[in-house]
Design goal:
The complex is a heterodimer of chains A (278) and B (238). Chain A has 278 residues and is an all-alpha fold. Chain A is 79% helix and 0% strand. Chain A has 14 helices and no strands. In chain A, helix 5 packs parallel to helix 11 and helix 8 packs antiparallel against helix 10. Chain A starts with 9 loop residues before the first helix and ends with a helix. With 238 residues, chain B is an alpha/beta fold. In chain B, 35% of the residues lie in helices and 26% in strands. In chain B, the strands form 2 sheets. A 6-stranded mixed sheet of chain B has the order 6-7-8-3-9-10, with helices on both faces. Chain B has a 4-stranded antiparallel sheet with strand order 2-1-4-5, covered by helices on one side. In chain B, a hairpin with a 2-residue loop joins strand 9 and strand 10. The two termini of chain B are 34 Å apart. Classes of the chains: A mainly alpha (278), B alpha/beta (238). The interface between A and B is medium-sized, with 21 and 29 residues.
Chain lengths: 278, 238
Amino acid sequence: MTATGLREPPLVKVLLIAGAVGYVALMLLLPLGAVLAEAFKKGWQLWLAAVTQPDARASIKLTLLVAAISVPLNTIFGVAAAWAIAKFDFPGKTALIALIELPFSVSPVVSGLVFVLLFGAQGWFGPWLQDHDIRIIFALPGLVLATLFVTFPFVARQLIPLMSAQGRADEEAALTLGASGWQTFWRVTLPNIRFGLLYGVLLCNARAMGEFGAVSVVSGHIRGETNTMPLQVEALYNDYDFVAAFAVASLLTLLAILTLALKSALEWRHRDQLSARH
Amino acid sequence: MSIRVEHVSKSYSAYPALNDVSLTMRDKEFVALLGPSGSGKTTLLRILAGLEVPEAGKVWFGKRDVTGDKPASRGIGFVFQHYALFGHMTVADNIAFGLDVMKRSDRPSRDKIRNRVDQLLELVQLPGLGKRYPSQLSGGQRQRVALARALARNPRILLLDEPFGALDAKVRRELRDALRQIHDELGITSIFVTHDQEEAFALADRVALLNHGRIEQFAAPPEIEAAPASAFVSAFLA
C-alpha cells in the first residue's frame, strides 16, 4: 500500500485537529478555568481565608486521612486480586472479575446506602454496635468503608490485563533460579508492574479524594467533623457562599492537576527504563 | 546426575498430557524430548523442573526422590523458549539473580558474584555485555544470557524448553553448537524439548520420541533411524 492512500487532504486534517482541540477546550479547560476564576474572583486573600477557615481545614484533613487509609488498603487488595486472577487458574475466576468491577456499575449512592443498611442505627449490626459504643455511620469508619468500596476496582483493573499479558514465565524463571515466593514477588513481579501500579494508585487516590455520592450517604454532613472536601463544597454552595465553595473546589482541582503532573513526571523520569523494557 | 522417571502420569482437566511414562537418563547425557505439539514433551520437562506436579509416579535425581520438591531446591537450570529475562535488570544482574537470592549465610561475596558473572559471560561468548539491558540484545544473545543465568548456581541438570524455537536458522545453528560445547565442558546432564527432528538428531546422545503422552521410542539417533519402534516413529521421521 502507498502512503498517498493514507494521507488526508490538509483541510480535513485542520478541521479534525481544530474539532478535537475545541472540544477539549469547551468540555475540560473551560470548566476548570471557571472554577479557578470563581475561586480567585475576589482576590487571593479571600481565597486564603476561605481555605484556612476551621471547617474547611477540617474537611481537608479528613479527606487526606480517608485517602491515606483507603488507598494503601486498596493497593494491597488490588495487587493481591490481580495477582491471583492473572497468574492462577481457579474455579469462579470470571465471577471474581465481575465482582471486582461491581463498584463501577453500582451507583455511588447505593454503595453508601449498603453500609447504612449494615451499620446504621436501624441496620443489621446497628443495635450491636450501639451496645458496644462503636460508631461507623456518620463517622470516620463509614467514610473509609464507602471510599474503599467505590475505589476498589482501580488498582486491580489496571493490573489484571497487564499481568495476564506478562504471563508466568518470569516468575517461573525466578523460582527455578532458587528464589522464594516472596523474593519472586518483590524482585520480579512488582518491578514488572510498577508503572501500571503507579497509574492505578494515582487514579484510586484521585477518586478517593473526589468521591461524593457514597460518602455523602454515610457522612451525616457534620461540618468540621464528617464533611470531606467534596461535601464541604456542596454545603458552602448551598449556603450561597460561592467564593468559599469555589475556593475549596479549586483545591480539589489543584489536587487533580498535581496527580496528573506527578504521573507525567514519573513517566518522563523513567522513560529510559520504560523504553528499555520493550 | 542421572534422572529416573517412574510411571509418571499427568492430565490437564480433560485430556491426559502424560500417560504412565518411564525412562532413565544417564549422568552427563544429552537427551532430546521430541514430538508433535500436544505430545506431552513440555509437560515432562516441566515435571522434571518441578513447575508441574505429576498425579502419579516418581522422579529421581540420582538417589534422591525429588517428586515433591520445589523447583528452587532441585539443583536445576531452566531455559525458556522466550528467554524470560528480567527486563528491568541489566544482563549482569540477570545472571547474578540465582546467587543474589541465596540465603545470606550461603551467598558468595559481591566480588565473587561479579567474577562468576564475568566467567559465565565468557562461557556464553558475550564478554563485556553485562551492563546492557535485555531489550538491547538480539534474540540469540538473549538466549545466551538466559543460558548463563541458568548455569550461575552450577546446576547438575540443565532443562531447556524449545531453546531455539524463537530464533532464525543461522543463529539457531550457532547456539546449538555452543550449547553442545558447554554441555561437554561442564559435564552436566542436559534435556531439551524440540519439535524439530533434525535438531534433535544432530544434537542429542539419545532422543525420546513422544506421542499422545507416551514414549514411542527412546534410543540413540542411528538406532531410531535403523529400527523405528512403531508406525508413528516411521511416519514422524519420514
